[in-house]
């Protein structure tokens, strides 16, 4: 059985984390990998751009509706390029704990043996990074994710969140959990942005993995409910995301094997 690559993408809300993750998933799929993306945010909109702009039913909603009769087909949907899409979901706003909801979703996936049954080459958890507590830290605990990547711009609050995420990972790292493997700079065209981010790297505890320039192609593809690969055949952003995918593949040589999908 092939080894499964387990990745968590963290970042402040509104930084473009889910957009980056969807395009990364598409790039990995184009490289011949069987990819699963799981959204770990109560908004449940992580995989929208892989599903033609449509939201999918969440794990928590299906638990409430079907209980013990829940099956994988109820919560795992096939999107662009065969990417397996899952959304954890969350409680009604103002009622319940979003972190606890993520924990319940993970427990349900374990009960259904999702990874053994579907055998993805790469699993990507897309996690809200404004807070790193309870359920939001679930992907970097107990072996769910091996490598963590932070999406940030040069904006102060984005870098502040990145610093908190880095500190949390260092704390978990002492217990042999996930490691911080790089920062993805999702540029916002701030003056001297790259140097601002580089100055913050020692405190965050990582290096820049990939620079993603601000490009109207990303917004154009989002408005059509897809990734740049699906919507824009000739976008220069293809190579940016393919380069990121290749770096992630090569970062731990031998963890995954490319397969035909």
Task: Tag the structure with descriptive keywords.
single chain; 261 residues; alpha/beta; eight-stranded mixed sheet; 39% helix; 17% strand; globular
Quick summary:
Helix 1 (17-30) packs across helix 10 (237-251).
Radius of gyration: 17 Å
> Strands of the biggest beta sheet: in what spatial order?
3-4-2-5-1-6-7-8
- Which blocks of ≥5 consecutive residues have pLDDT under 50? 253-261
Reported for the largest beta sheet, the result is: 8 strands, mixed
Distance between the termini: 16 Å
Q: What's the SSE pattern?
A: EHEHHEEHHEEHEHEHHH
Strand content: 15-25%
- Which structural class fits the helix and strand makeup? alpha/beta
The overall average pLDDT, rounded, is 89
Shape: globular
Helix content: 25-40%
Work out the helix count. 10
| Number of extended strands | 8
Quaternary structure annotation: single chain
Task: Please characterize this protein's 3D structure.
There is one protein chain. With 261 residues, this protein is an alpha/beta fold. It is built from ten helices and eight strands. The chain has helices spanning 17-30, 59-66, 72-75, 98-111, 114-118, 156-173, 193-204, 216-223, 228-231, 237-251, and strands at residues 5-11, 35-40, 77-78, 84-87, 122-128, 147-152, 179-186, 208-212. The chain has an eight-stranded mixed β-sheet, with helices on both faces. Helix 1 (17-30) crosses helix 10 and helix 6 runs parallel beside helix 7. Mean pLDDT is 89; it is low at 253-261.
């Amino acid at each position: 059985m092939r080894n499964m690559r387990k990745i968590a993408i963290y970042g402040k809300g509104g930084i473009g984390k889910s957009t980056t993750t969807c395009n990364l998933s598409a790039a990995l799929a184009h490289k011949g990998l069987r990819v699963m993306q799981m959204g770990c945010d109560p908004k449940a909109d992580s995989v929208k751009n892989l599903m033609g702009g449509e939201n999918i039913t969440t794990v928590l909603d299906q638990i409430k509706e079907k209980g013990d009769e829940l099956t994988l087909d109820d919560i795992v949907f096939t999107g662009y390029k065969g990417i397996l899409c899952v959304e954890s979901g969350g409680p009604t706003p103002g009622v319940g704990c979003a972190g606890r909801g993520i924990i319940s979703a993970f427990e349900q996936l374990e009960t259904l043996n999702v990874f053994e049954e579907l055998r993805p080459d790469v699993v990507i958890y897309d996690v809200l990074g404004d807070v790193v507590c309870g359920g939001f830290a679930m992907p970097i605990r107990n072996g769910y994710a091996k490598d963590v990547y932070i999406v940030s711009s040069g904006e102060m609050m984005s870098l502040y969140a990145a610093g908190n995420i880095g500190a949390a990972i260092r704390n978990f790292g002492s217990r042999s959990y996930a490691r911080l493997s790089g920062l993805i700079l999702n540029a916002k065209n701030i003056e001297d942005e790259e140097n601002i981010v580089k100055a913050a790297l020692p405190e965050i505890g990582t290096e820049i993995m990939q620079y993603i320039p601000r490009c109207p192609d990303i917004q154009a593809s989002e408005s059509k409910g897809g990734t740049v690969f699906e919507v824009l055949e000739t976008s220069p952003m293809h190579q940016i995301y393919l380069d990121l995918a290749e770096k992630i593949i090569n970062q731990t040589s031998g963890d995954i094997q490319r397969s035909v999908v």
